[in-house]
Amino acid sequence: MPDRGGGPTGPRIRVGRPSRRVRTLLTTLGVLAVLGMAFTMFAGFWTDWLWYRSVNYSSVFTTTLWTKIGLFSVFGLLMALAVGFNIWLAHRLRPPLSAMSVEQQSLDRYRMGIAPYKRWLLFGITALVGLIAGASAAGQWRTWLMWVNGVSFGQKDPQFHLDVSFFAFDLPWYRFLLGFGFAATILSLIAAALTHYLYGGLRVTSPGARATAAATGHLSVLLGIFVALKAVAYWLDRYGLAVKSSDFKATDNWTGLRYVDANAYLPAKTILFCIAVICALLFFATLWRRTWQLPVIGFGLMVLSAILIGGLYPAIVQKFQVQPNEQAKEAPYVEKNLKATREAYGISGTQVTEYSGTSPTEDKTKLRDDVDATASIRVLDPNIVSPTFQQLQQMRKYYAFPTNLDVDRYTVDGSDQDTVIGLRELNLAGVDKQNWINNHFRYTHGYGVVAAKGTTADSEGRPAFTESDLPSQGVLGDYEQRIYYGEKTTSYSIVGGPQKEIDYSDDDGEKTTSYTGKSGVNLSNPLNRAAYAVSFGEPQILYSGAIGDGSRILYNRTPKERVEAVAPWLTIDGDAYPAVVDGKIQWIVDAYTTTNGYPYASRTTLGDTTADSLTATNDNRAVVAQQNQVNYIRNSVKATVDAYTGQVKLYQWDTEDPVLKTWMKAFPGTVKAKSTISDALMAHLRYPQDLFKVQRELLTRYHVKDATTFLSGSEVWQVPDDPTNKSGDAVPPYYLSMKMPDQKAQAFSLTTTFTPNGRDNLSAFMAVDSEAGTPGYGKIRVLKLPTSTTVDGPKQVQSQFNSEQAIAESIRLLRGGDSEVEYGNLLTVPLDGGLLYVEPVYVRGGGLQYPLLRKVLVTYGGNTAFEDTLDQALDKVFGATATTPTPPEDDGGTTTPPPPATENPTVQEALDDAQKAFTAGQEALKKGDWEAYGKAQDDLEAALKRAEDAQAAAGKNGDKATSSPSPAATPSASPSKSAGPTAAPSPTKAAADG
User: Fold this and answer.
1) Is 479 helix (H, G, I), strand (E, B) or coil?
2) What range does the record give for the signal peptide (predicted)?
3) Is the four-CA dihedral 965, 968, 971, 973 of positive or negative sign?
4) Which of 231, 359, 749, 814 has the most CB atoms within 10 Å of its CB?
5) Alpha carbon 870 to chain centroid distance?
6) Are residues 858 and 873 in contact, defined by beta-carbon separation less than 8 angstroms?
7) Is 860 helix (H, G, I), strand (E, B) or coil?
8) Which tens digit of pLDDT belongs to each residue from 535-568?
């Protein structure tokens, strides 16, 4: 062909179509890419379906799936139709001829450019907004299911007299619908305005009318819909005041109406609703009037009213009515908040009793026997002895125990016994040869329970095991010992096929086994293998010869994972614990139903209120969904997970909870009746820790019932920091079998202490009856200490332990060499009006890398003991002698009080002087007057010397009626030694006591 450009001719490069082979290759690659993406998406769906079917909870999967699909489809379609219809309508209402202006001429090229693709562009825009809206709506599946299945609470809010279910189930759904309506209207308005502008219905710079009549009518209707939705928002905001959080000096996360809400915001919202309705009608009237004048005036009036009525007026009320007399104005609303919060968190039945904090019994020896009847004091700390279990009972490196063991109770020799229990779980990090076969086929499970008495240790400070060795044997009898599901089992395993598993090893070598349970998903099907190979990113699953007939893949193996998966509407407690029940190891998991819509109940963040010194160092102790803000919680479900089969069972525990009833309607058949819980399982159920921690946090303020005290803040408590370490985190609650003052027998309890806000002395002691299946289960008792006198709190008691000179010297020696001292849980037990504190002390070192119980600290009524065993310490505290620990033998100090009066008057006079000098020294020590203290010690030493000389002289004269007071039986003359009936505190302690 000739060159039409007029330039020089030359060789032409022909760009031809790709060859058929290339086109075929490209097409094939494209198809394969699409099929690959499709199969990847299918694999995720298919493996989820297979897993839910394997645990017999396929209805949860299908209900959730169809709900999401339905919401996605309906709201995605509605959004697409709304936006698409308004684009189509704006295009249809375009003027027949565009004005010949510079503005319109510049738009002509855009109109001409999109003309051939108008339908595709319309489809693309509507599809995009539909997909986004549908995905957002699918995330509201919980809100939809709660709305459509909601049941009545049987309680009405105090302001609007509506059932609580309206706020918990209905209002969230209405707010979602309102938000969706706003989004659809705004997107439609933007799309319509752009279309009108593009086709000349709206003009920005052109002379003449800015909008055609058709565009004016169309946009005014959309604006009218927006204002009408705003009117609905104002109306719903009235009810939202009952669940609104605000800053209030009385408490954090205050929820509900206050005086300004009820008397300013509530009427303001009603007035704004009426104004918005009128304004919306004015916009709709534009269809006939074809003018923006009245709607614009109405809209301006609405905005001005929102500023004046909705903002300025409430501020004036707060400033000039509430602040001058806040307590009187706010008291009625505080009372509503108090009542609602106590009800929402299950603390309305809390029994608060005055407790003196000091024992009226003068002869403390009478209380020694009462200690054993009052509490089974646990000296084995489950949060410290895990390394000891590991060292003594691990047996093989591929086994491990959790960082924190658990406390349960078992019947041994006919009596209940607090027991520290842990499972010997699989630890893949301990497998010598790491490869795919070993990690997923050979080493697949742990083996056996290890348990020890909680109240004692053996003569060497080691746990007194009641179940031990490999295979485990002891008081728990026969049970399935293989542990395929546990807290440390986070990797998948493939079992039951041609590859044998290592069961355990003994002196005769390795024992092998093959899984016979029905858990997991069968991999015999090639489709299943391909799906898991894609989902797990492990191609060997597809072609490995280690997989054959009978092979099953186990995953989602931690108890919390499994319960959360089968019941995604539950919040899971942070501490799952094992128990041997009917010949099986069962993981017991506590689960909660929650809502954020209980009117007037103050909110709490689960992650904050359940945090303590244990969760700070152990992620497994953290509550699931810890960022959730809730203002209603119930321990409605007890769940079990079989450690061998992985079977999950959900039991209805709170039969009155309306939130659980709602979810049971949404997922019928998933939760079993409470009556189906066996007696053997019931014996191991307990009050959950995370619920207790939430309740104790609320009780720091909500233990009071009158608004005046609540507003004053004079009775605010706090959960003390853990005194046994320097983490600065809250002390964890402790399980303990004990008897509160109004109880006739010991009950398995969960306990904690409170201190006044900003101070360290004790303000209250709290315990909840944790013995499931008994009439008292869940009963919260609070012993309130007097505010007029001070009783030492945990931090002060720990400080006393650390500052006692004899104890400090003993601990210094225990730390000798490379040893470390670890303080166990500081337990508090109410006893005869006073408080008994017990703390085990562990030593790790001397070539041993695990802690052993070496000493027990005990204090009661100012008397302190530091002995080798609990019994010895209790005997010393409540005995006629020995109120302080005996210092090390090389110390030379003395610890016992002066002997009783003798018949020698000279000796008796000297001992009286010694007692006076000792008392004077104690007084001087409390005041920090070291000069006076030194003088008193000199007088004490001189008096003791006179007594000893007089006694010696009497002995020479044949006076056999007297005996020489040895140094071991007299007050110490040295300020570094213990002296008298109570140990002389050190300068450090004196300063701490202030």
Assistant:
1) coil
2) none
3) positive
4) 749
5) 33
6) yes
7) strand
8) 999 999 998 889 988 899 999 999 999 999 999 9
Please state, in angstroms and as integers, the Cα–Cα distance from residue 134 to each residue in 74, 137, 424, 578, 846, following that order: 7, 5, 47, 42, 65
Tell me what the pLDDT averaged over the chain comes to: 84
Q: What is the pLDDT of residues 316-347, one digit of tens each?
A: 998 888 888 888 898 999 999 999 999 999 99
Write the DSSP symbol of residue 487: T
Q: 375: helix, coil or strand? A: strand
* 3-class SS string, 155-215: CECCCCCCEHHHHHHHHHHHHHHHHHHHHHHHHHHHHHHHHHHHCCCECCCCCCCCECHHH
Q: How many alpha carbons lie under 13 Å from residue 516 in its C-beta half-sphere?
A: 5
What residue has token string 């979810």?
663
More confidently predicted of 98 and 520: 520
| Residue position matching structure tokens 């010694």 | 914
* Joined tokens for residue 152: 């009545």
Burial of residue 332, with CB atoms counted within 10 A of its CB: 0-12 exposed, 13-18 middle, 19 or more buried: middle
Between CA 692 and CA 623 the distance in angstroms is 13
Beta bridge partners, 768, equal 750, 780
In three-state secondary structure terms, 968 is: helix
Q: Tell me, what amino acid is at 715?
A: E
Supply 27's token pair. 């097409």
What pTM was computed for the model? 0.82
Angstrom distance (rounded) from CA 640 to CA 327: 49
pLDDT of 781-839, one tens digit each?
999 999 888 888 898 888 888 888 888 888 888 887 778 888 999 999 999 999 999 99
Of the chain, the end-to-end C-alpha distance in Å amounts to 108
Which two tokens mark 971? 């007050």
Structure tokens at 993: 């006591």
List b or e across 495-527, with b for residues whose CB sees 16 or more CB atoms inside 10 angstroms.
bbbebebbbbeeeeeeeeeebebebbbbbeeee
pLDDT at 98 exceeding the cut of 90: no
Cα within 13 Å of Cα(591), Cβ side: 31
